Each structure stands twice: as C-alpha cells, then as structure tokens.
Amino acid sequence: MPEQKIDDVTIRCEKLPAREAQRLLLRLGKMLGPALESVAYLQSVSGDEDVERVTAAILGDVLAKADVDQADALLTQLIEAAQIKSVKSGGYEPIVFDHHFQDNLIGAWKVAGFVLKVNFADFFGAATDSIFGAMAATSRQSRNSNA
After folding, report:
1. At 95, is the secondary structure helix, strand, or coil?
2. Would you list the domain boundaries of the chain?
3. Up-side HSE of residue 17: CA atoms within 13 Å toward CB?
4. pLDDT digit string (tens) for 56-65?
5. pLDDT, tens digit, 9 for 90 and up, residues 17-31
6. How confident is the model over 77-85, as a mean pLDDT?
C-alpha cells in the first residue's frame, strides 16, 4: 500500500474499489471540467513561476465556480480514503478531519493530492503534485503575508 510522509505524519492509501473510484472521478470531472485543458497544459509547463501562475489560474477558476458543499464533500471523501499512522500505537487509523487537520488545513489538501495521485495518476499525472503543492504554497504565502 503506498505511503507518503506529509508534513510530520505518515499517510497511506490504497486504490479505491473500481466503482467508488469511477464515481469519484466523475465528481472530480464535473468540478474540474472547465479547467481540464489548463490541467493538461500544466503538465507541459516548465519553470516554477510559470507552474505557480498556471496553477493559480486553474484553482481560481475551479474554486470560483465550485459549489461549496460539493467541494467540501469531495475533499472529505478524498481524505477519508487515506489512513494516518498513529504516533502512540504505530498502527494506522482512519483520518478524522476535525481532529487531524485542526491546525493544519494545508495538510488536508496535501493528503487529498496524495489520494488523487494513488488513484488517478493515469488521468492527472504530475498535475496532482503541481496543483496541490501550489495550493499549499499559495496558502502558506497568504497566511504569512497576513501575519
């Protein structure tokens, strides 16, 4: 089962059952549909500034048009497909959004990106790293400039 260190915790995620993955992909397609051409273009972009610029445009377009409840449900479904390694027991446990991301909302987006990468790398390729990594960086920059 694929694992990834995200911030200071280890996350693992197995591939979703085919029907569940199909439904999730269709929901993602509805949300990302208007930006899919830009997502495909993002894979060919080089240079950090260009990647950040294109990513910001994609995210702005997607989030501006997204229904808040649908976007929240989608993010929650992605996150709940993963498990987090317990510091106490060393075993894995389900992720509880309000508990595990109380002080780290950026981490939630990183986990969602990891789940997308595990389940849909053939559809999104390296774009998942670019999109979710840029979201985290943009969020950090915004938070630091407001401090």
Report:
1. coil
2. 3-146
3. 2
4. 677 777 777 7
5. 999 999 998 888 887
6. 94
- 14 near 118, Cβ under 8 Å? yes
Q: Which two tokens stand for residue 47?
A: 């240079």
The pTM for the full model equals: 0.73
DSSP states of 41-64 as a string? Answer: HHTT--SHHHHHHHHHHHHHHHHH
Cα-trace Rg, the chain? 15
Residue 119 to residues 37, 89, 107, Cα–Cα distance (Å): 20, 27, 18
Give the separation between CA 114 and CA 135, rounded to whole angstroms.
13
Other beta carbons less than 10 A from residue 120's beta carbon = 18
Q: Rounded to an integer, what distance in angstroms lies between the CA atom of residue 78 and that of residue 42?
A: 22
Please give the structure tokens belonging to residue 24: 């999730």
Q: From residue 131, how far is each of 68, 93, 123 by CA, in Å?
A: 19, 27, 14
Question: How many angstroms separate the first and last alpha carbons of the chain?
Answer: 39
